[in-house]
Design a protein that fits this description.
The structure holds 2 protein chains of 2 kinds. Chain A is of the alpha+beta class. Chain A contains 5 helices and 5 strands; from the N terminus they run H-H-E-H-E-E-H-E-E-H. Chain A is elongated. Chain B has one domain. The chains are: A alpha+beta, B mainly alpha.
Chain lengths: ~190, ~350
């Protein structure tokens, strides 16, 4: 590096003596004061509008006729990286090809809201709501059962999906147990 | 005897008024600092208590009042209790000699009273410097008596820093004293009447501009404010010398810090910026015939100057990072001190020559 010339050194000295660098910094803060535009959101009073794909509280969903979507396949339990979900699957009485979740537990203290259970669900029975204010005084309040999860889904997704029967020939077999599906002729 | 008791009553009323105003200013400052700092950092500052958070100081005060007063195990109880008082009393007591308004006298109950200064003693500057030094004891003792490493380090740093910078404050003032020929703040302020070119920052024959800069920087250092807040460096020493303090004792230290800020601002305004004198000759209110209300203008100018300084404190805090300890000492002893000494020499020579040819 070249030696600083006398002129440059004089300018540096002058800058030191007149607090030039300090004044530059103080001008910056002053300009923020004059062009006061806070980025603060007064949180409890005003809230952000959340994006539609926000990954908030998990919920179990229903079809428009009020029946549960969940078929008790345990895929969410398998997909969950932190073992939040526990499903107890059972057969619907009298319908040997159909199953449902007899019990469904979520330990939300462990959930990391990755959304893998939602992706894994073959019948879209799980949904992520925009709820995030779930601070509780008792940790046990975060151990949710099926009724609570369904209640969250009911209040967060009032518009429910229509129940679609499985029409494709490959899967139409699963519809055999439905009462309104005509019986196969013998 | 009645006259003596009357005099006592009037003095006490004056003291109460000044104390009240100072405490009110401290309350405003705690809020104003957070607000100004917030605005400068694109935040809002306190917004919850009252409209736009203006009742925040009251909430803070109530909170501190009801907090538990903890004395740490192994602390020297006597010193631990004494330190906050030692810090606060000198900060408050300095206001006794500050002239807040014109040097007028009023006749009340057959007595002559100066309404805008509690006590016009002829060693006013010395008095303030002396009590500011005692204030340092509060900080040092508080740091030592807490039986905590952080507090001790804060106290030690504070001791070294205050000694270094008090020297510069004292020497920076000497130029003004040479020019005015008096130690009384009232006389010094009176000598600066008649326009801003008579203020000692700009005054002929020896403008005290360098002394003023030295004074302001040293005053920031002396009140332990950013960028010289090493005694309470929160990123290094938790809270420095008042780490172990809580409740009202903490509040005492807090009030002392802010009262000290107000005090050094008042002294700077009185010594260098003409005190309550307007930057133009006379007063507007006197020109338009309201002679008896001219004091309002004087007090208003004093307030403007003091609050300007206090704003500068906030502004510096929002802008500057903290100095390293060796930088602080180097700056104090190798930069500030020679400038202050040179200023004394130049001022003395200029005043000598000026008086010869006057």
């Amino acid at each position: 590096m070249a030696q600083a010339t006398t002129r440059e050194r004089f300018i540096d000295w002058l800058k030191t003596m007149t607090f030039y660098e300090l004044l530059v910094g103080m001008k910056a803060t002053m300009s923020h004061l004059i062009h006061y535009k806070p980025i603060t959101l007064q949180y409890p009073h005003e809230k952000r509008t959340l994006p539609d794909n926000y990954r908030g509280m998990l919920a179990l969903l229903r079809y428009d006729d009020g029946t549960e979507k969940c078929v008790g396949c345990d895929l969410c339990e398998a997909a969950c990286p932190s073992r939040v979900i526990r499903v107890v699957s059972a057969e619907i009485p009298g319908e040997p090809t159909k199953r449902y979740s007899k019990e469904y537990y979520m330990d939300m203290t462990r959930c990391l809201f990755c959304g893998m259970c939602v992706d894994a669900c073959p019948v879209d029975a799980l949904g992520m709501t925009k709820e995030f204010e779930w601070a509780v005084y008792d940790k046990r309040d975060l151990q949710l059962n099926k009724q609570q999860l369904l209640a969250i889904g009911d209040r967060s997704f009032p518009v429910r999906e229509k129940r679609l029967e499985l029409q494709h020939p490959n899967v139409a077999f699963f519809n055999v147990a439905f009462q309104h599906v005509p019986q196969k002729p013998n | 005897m009645t006259e003596l008791s009357l005099r006592l009553a009037v003095s006490l009323a004056q003291i109460a008024a000044v104390m009240g105003i100072v405490m009110l200013t401290v309350m405003i400052l705690t809020l104003a600092e957070r607000k100004v700092l917030g605005w400068m950092q694109d935040r809002m500052g306190p917004m919850e208590v009252g409209p736009y958070g203006i009742l925040q100081p009251i909430a803070d005060g109530l909170k501190l009042f009801f907090k538990e007063d903890i004395v740490p195990a192994g602390a020297n109880k006597f010193m631990f209790s004494l330190a906050p008082i030692l810090a606060m009393v000198p900060a408050m007591i300095g206001f006794a000699v500050i002239p807040f308004g014109p040097n007028e006298t009023i006749q009340l109950f057959g007595m002559t009273i100066k309404p805008f200064v509690i006590s016009d003693i002829n060693i006013g500057v010395l008095y303030i410097l002396a009590f500011a030094s005692i204030g340092a004891y509060g900080i040092i003792l508080g740091g030592w008596a807490s039986n905590s490493k952080y507090s001790l380090l804060g106290g030690l740093r504070s001791a070294a820093q205050i000694i270094s910078y008090e020297l510069n404050v004292g020497l920076a003032i000497v130029g003004v004293l040479i020019m005015s020929g008096s130690l009384s703040l009232v006389k010094i302020t009176d000598a600066q009447a008649g326009g801003f070119w008579h203020w000692y920052v700009f005054a002929f024959p020896a403008p005290q501009i360098f002394a003023f800069v030295v004074y302001v920087i040293s005053a920031v250092a002396e009140t332990n404010r950013v960028p010289f807040d090493l005694p309470e460096a929160e990123s290094e020493l938790v809270a420095g010398f008042f780490t172990e303090y809580s409740g009202m004792r903490f509040a005492f230290f807090f009030i002392a810090e802010y009262a000290n800020m107000v005090l050094v601002s008042c002294v700077a305004a009185a010594l260098f910026l003409g005190g309550w004198n307007a930057p133009y000759p006379g007063t507007i209110l006197a020109h338009i015939g309201l002679e008896s209300f001219a004091w309002i203008e004087g007090v208003a100018w004093f307030t403007v100057k003091v609050y300007g300084f206090l704003f500068l404190f906030f502004w510096l805090r929002a802008t500057l990072p903290r100095l390293r300890y060796d930088q602080l000492m180097k700056f104090g002893w190798k930069v500030m001190l020679p400038i202050a000494l040179a200023n004394i020499v130049v001022t003395a020579i200029a005043m000598y020559i000026y008086n010869q040819f006057k």
